Amino acid sequence: MVYPKSLENLINYYKKLPGIGEKNAERLALATLNFKEEDIDNFAASLEDVKNKIHKCKICGHLTEWEICDICKDESRDHNLICVIEDYKSVFSFEKAGNYRGVYHVLNGLISPADNIGPDNINLASLVKRVEQAEKPELILALKSTVEGETTTLYIKKIFENKDVVISRLSYGIPMGAEIDYLDIITLDKALEDRKKISE
Amino acid sequence: MVYPKSLENLINYYKKLPGIGEKNAERLALATLNFKEEDIDNFAASLEDVKNKIHKCKICGHLTEWEICDICKDESRDHNLICVIEDYKSVFSFEKAGNYRGVYHVLNGLISPADNIGPDNINLASLVKRVEQAEKPELILALKSTVEGETTTLYIKKIFENKDVVISRLSYGIPMGAEIDYLDIITLDKALEDRKKISE
User: Fold this and answer.
1) Within its chain, how far is the Cα of B44 from the centroid?
2) End of a domain among B13, B30, B53?
3) Nearest to B54 among A4, A50, A65 (CB)
4) A93 touches chain B (CB under 8 A)
5) DSSP at B19
6) For residue A53, what is the nearest residue in chain B, using CA coordinates?
7) How high is the pLDDT of residue A10?
8) Would you call A63 helix, strand, or coil by DSSP?
9) Closest chain B residue to A94, measured at CA
10) Least CB-CB distance to A31: which of B5, B18, B54?
11) Total domains, chain B
């Protein structure tokens, strides 16, 4: 064994992280040796904290340290406007973008018959309840454009058919700043189809 | 604040690691959320272990969990052949290359007047002692080919001038200015094999 046992252990845990290979894990572990004692203590404590303190918001399913997340608690936000997303990572993306002032509903998955994930396996029942309790509900479906995303979008659309709910989905098109000649043809087709008139 | 506090903390600690930027740290922290409870406990424990258990070998200055490191303890190795290196990372590289059967002496630095690091600031006194106590001492100076490395090599050569010590340095197989611990093992083996005697 080349490394002392505790160092070897640390290397193995760094290796479990996405995109961290053998060489990189070694580098991170050796760098950790140079951390201040206090920093190592806090680093270890923050790992335990993340495990012990973080769970799902009772209302929207997003990650929080409380019973109800800060977004659901925020009275300045529009609670009739609910953005439906696949997982909590999308919440962080929207919040960083910073312009959305509604709330979220985290499905924690998408309908995928191939993986045995049906409508009952994702966080849909509580969405129905939320919509029923809202005054003028509006849903924004922000699910990815894969088969599973489209299936889930259609399923949700069907649930609220004939009910007084405005439903929209994110627009498809060219990412801002992207080179048009590097775009995949499906996106390009979609952008063409959904083209927006700009003349009067 | 976009992230729950404990998650934000973890992101900040990942960001302290070399080569891990904001975006990557977020990715690692979110991936950590999906670790098994047991893995998080062990990950945190391994951080503390590295801090608490690892210190320098009393003989060679290499990292170990014991008073004397496994290499210095190993009686099958040639204790007259001492490879002098800048830091412990080089030991790991040599040990991975796997052909060196002598022992090491970790200087923990190089002479660098510009940084106010003189001969007394690196682990040289104990090297002199080790050489004096050895039967037929042979030193291999495996320091990088920078000004500091060359200065230190010359200084050590001078210390043992007119003493019964064979001194060699690694051959010029080392790319100029490269860090020894990032060398590929074949180059490292070659440099070890072609080491060049510099004492009379």
Assistant:
1) 25
2) B53
3) A4
4) no
5) T
6) B6
7) 95
8) strand
9) B2
10) B18
11) 2
- Verify that A121 and A195 share a domain, yes or no: no
Which token pair is A131? 């919509």
A30 interfacial to chain B (CB closer than 8 Å): yes
CA distance A192 to A77: 34
Both B128 and B180 in one domain: the answer is: yes
Same-domain pairing of A87 and A130: yes
Please, are residues A83 and A104 in contact by the beta-carbon 8 Å criterion? Answer: yes
Tell me what pLDDT residue A145 has: 83
The answer to whether the CB atoms of A40 and B18 lie below 8 A apart is: no
Angle, CA of B40, B44 and B49, to the nearest 5°: 140
Q: Is residue A120 part of a domain?
A: yes
Sort B50 into a burial class: Cβ within 10 Å, 0-12 / 13-18 / 19+. Answer: buried
User: By three-state DSSP, how is residue B31 classified?
Assistant: helix
Q: Please say if the pLDDT value at position A191 is more than 90.
A: no
Overall average pLDDT of the A151-172 stretch = 90
What's the domain range around A15?
A: 5-53
In a domain, A58, yes or no: no
- Give percent of chain B with pLDDT exceeding 70: 95
ipTM tops the 0.90 cut: no
If we measure between CA atoms, which residue out of B11, B47, B39, B24 comes closest to residue A18? B24
Which residue blocks in chain B are alpha helix, DSSP H?
Answer: 5-15, 22-33, 37-53, 70-73, 88-97, 125-133, 147-159, 185-193
Mean pLDDT estimate for chain B: 90
Which residues are CB-contacts of A176 (< 8 A; sequence separation ≥ 6)? none
pLDDT at residue A1 greater than cutoff 90? no
Which residue out of A12, A50, A67 would a mutagenesis test of the B interface target, given it has the greatest number of B Cβ atoms within 10 Å? Answer: A50
Q: Residue B35: its pLDDT value, please?
A: 93
The CATH number linked to B29 is 1.10.8.420
